[in-house]
Each structure stands twice: as C-alpha cells, then as structure tokens.
Amino acid sequence: MSEAKTVGDENSGRSRRHARLEAFYRRYSPWLVARLRRRFGADTEDLVQEIWLRVAAIEADLDIRHPRAFLLKVAFNIGLSGDRQHRRRRQILDSAAPLGTMALEPTQNAAVQIQEIVLALPQPLRDVFVLSRFGGLTNNQIAEQLDISPKTVEWRMTKALAQCAAELRR
C-alpha cells in the first residue's frame, strides 16, 4: 500500500514540476527568443530549443531568483559547448582527405562543379556530407564524432543530398 502511495506521490511531483516548467517556458520563451534573435539570427530557434531541453533536464527545483540571467547563462554555456564542437568538427574535417584530392572521374569540369556545390552547402550539412561520402563513415560514427544524434545526421544528409541534386539540375 505504501509503495502505491510513493509512486502516486512521485507522479504528482513530476506533474507539478512539469506544470512549473511549462509556466516558466510560456513566461520567458518569447523574451528569450527576442533577446537572442538579435545576436544569432536564423539559428535562434535551435538555440532556444536547446536551452529549454537543458532546463528541462535539470533535476533541481525550478525556483530561480533571476530567471532571465539564468536563461542567458544557459545560452552562454551552450555557446561554449558549441565552440568546442566547432573546434572538434574542424579537426575531424581537417584530418579528412581534402576535396581537391578526391577522384570524381566523370570529367574535370564535372568534378569542379561537384566540389563547388559541396563547398556551397551550409556548414552543418557539408560536415555530414563530407564525412559520409568522402570519409566513408556511417551515420552512427558521424553522430559520435560531431556530437549530434544519428537522426540529426540522417536529416542533414537528406537535406545535403537534396540541395546537391537541385544544384546539379540547374
């Protein structure tokens, strides 16, 4: 009987925490988006989503005295983490064979065109594409090296291939 009560109390605690987190999100999310959009532009929505994921993962009570300062500190920490990821990604890509040394057979002109298309891809898409197509890595290996989920690797690869195909049709 006491075990059922404990489970019920635990579920009740979770739902209260969820309600507080939702209220916190609704109150500060518009402010956070507006504040970060000035600095991060198109990447703001991704950053804000990452901030809320980190806040939701915090086990402690959400009784925060200065919520705006707290959210900006989380954003700053994500930025530091992103800088580390960027350096790691750069090291991985620098160690991969350069595109210019790849044999792309069809003709020299086609090889140059393909290289230009790949280099024009947005950085996150290009990283995944190069590691997959030129580095021969699997989605799981790419996810591990870039510190992203395999699903994100799959999504980025799909977008990269679609953009390459669209450019080749032009």
UniProtKB/TrEMBL annotation:
**Kinase: present as a keyword of the record?**
no
Alphabetic keyword roster: Sigma factor, Transcription, Transcription regulation
GO MF assignments: DNA binding; sigma factor activity
Q: Which residues form the RNA polymerase sigma factor 70 region 4 type domain?
A: 113-164
Any GO BP: DNA-templated transcription initiation
- RNA polymerase sigma-70 region domain ranges (all copies): 24-77
Regarding protein family, the annotation reads: Belongs to the sigma-70 factor family. ECF subfamily.
PANTHER family noted in UniProt: RNA POLYMERASE ECF-TYPE SIGMA FACTO (PTHR43133), RNA POLYMERASE SIGMA FACTOR FECI-RELATED (PTHR43133:SF63)
Q: What is this protein called?
A: RNA polymerase sigma-70 factor (ECF subfamily)
| Organism this protein belongs to | Brevundimonas vesicularis
